[in-house]
Amino acid sequence: MTIVTGVTARVPAKLNLQLAVGPPRADGYHDLVTVFHAVSLFDEVTVEPAGRDEVTVSGEGAGQVPDDGDNLALRAVAALRRKVRGGARTAGVRVTIAKRIPVAAGLAGGSADAAAALVACNELWTAGLTPHQLGEVAAVIGSDVAFALLGGTAVGRGRGERLTPALAPATQYHWVLAFADGHLSTPKVYAALDRLRAQAGLAQPDLDAALMAALRSGDAALLGRALSNDLQPAALSLFPALRKTLTAGVELGALGAIVAGSGPTCVFLAANAERALELAVSLSGAGVCRSVARVTGPVPGAVVLS
Ligand code: C5P
User: Fold this and answer.
1) 41 φ/ψ sector (left φ>0, alpha ψ -120 to 50, else beta)
2) Which is nearest to 111 in space by CA: 82, 136, 139, 132?
3) What is the DSSP letter of 33?
4) For 289, how many CA atoms within 13 A lie in the half-sphere containing its CB?
5) Hey, which of 29, 72, 111 would you mutate to test ligand 1's pocket, going by the most ligand atoms within 8 Å of its Cβ?
6) Residue 143 CB less than 6 A away from ligand 1
7) How many of the other CB atoms lie within 10 Å of CB of 278?
């Protein structure tokens, strides 16, 4: 018999190629229509049996990740335990998170860690939950957790947790991420959007046909033009320096430039790997961000590493 001592899962960051935000709901959330896209910037999460639940975090921004019950990966462990009801088998878990996805950067790093903890504990406990069942647990933990399980490119509705994979050719897109010197709190960015919109009429969000056509065509230039994010004006109002970063990327030849989710990471689409490298080097040299990363997408969601 093989004794499993620890299980490691790898999970990607996400971009929103479209993020259309509706009016605030009674529960404080906003109805969305979004096109999620998973990219090759990964966290790794290891789970092992332990006396009690605990978490340690290393890597990018580790100091800002809560190490108590607020930690999304620990909340995922607890939620899965309730669902599985596995008794002693599912007792305490030590969660070790190796971060490369920056914290509070608009890339859903916390949600990613929760998704990784779910697939890793499902394996550790030989719980046998289906992807659909894991998705149900994920939706309770956070709006982006279900997508971190699924990966690829997918349309999200509701809070973002109701997902439909997008049918698209196997095009690989080349992105440059510009990480900011600072953070943005997602609830504060949504609140800023509500304030900015207080005067305007509020429409229900709608899927962008031009964006979906661009994805079907696999044409990066079309996709670059179709990127959109309703949260961008709110993020810029709280973090005005991002304007300079976005402008610099466009001037340096990006096919599209957008704030990632609630920010403050800026995302640039390049025509190919070579252009992405040039753009990354030039953005670094321009001094308009803390650091840059080149990534590709789409990539699969959370997977257990064998
Ligand atoms: O679901 P999650 O915990 O990731 O959301 C973080 C915060 O972002 C929420 O508390 C809410 O303020 C805001 N949010 C929202 N509408 C969404 C998703 C998130 O207002 N659809």
Assistant:
1) beta
2) 139
3) E
4) 30
5) 29
6) yes
7) 14
Catalytic positions: 14, 144
Using the structure block, give the residue that is written with the tokens 């179709």: 226
Q: What pTM value is reported for the model?
A: 0.96
**Tokens (6 digits) for 290:** 């803390």
Tens-digit pLDDT profile for residues 93-121 = 999 999 999 999 999 999 999 999 999 99
Element (H, E) at 34: strand 30-49
Taking the C-alpha atoms of residue 223 and residue 254, their distance in angstroms, rounded to an integer, is 11
Length of the chain: 306
Q: Are 21 and 32 in contact (CB under 8 A)?
A: yes
Give the integer Cα–Cα distance in Å for 296 and 306: 23
Cβ contacts of residue 199 below 8 Å, gap of 6+? none
Per-residue tokens: 294: 């080149």
Instruction: Name the residue of 30, 141, 163, 238 to mutate for ligand 1: max ligand atoms within 8 A of Cβ.
Output: 30
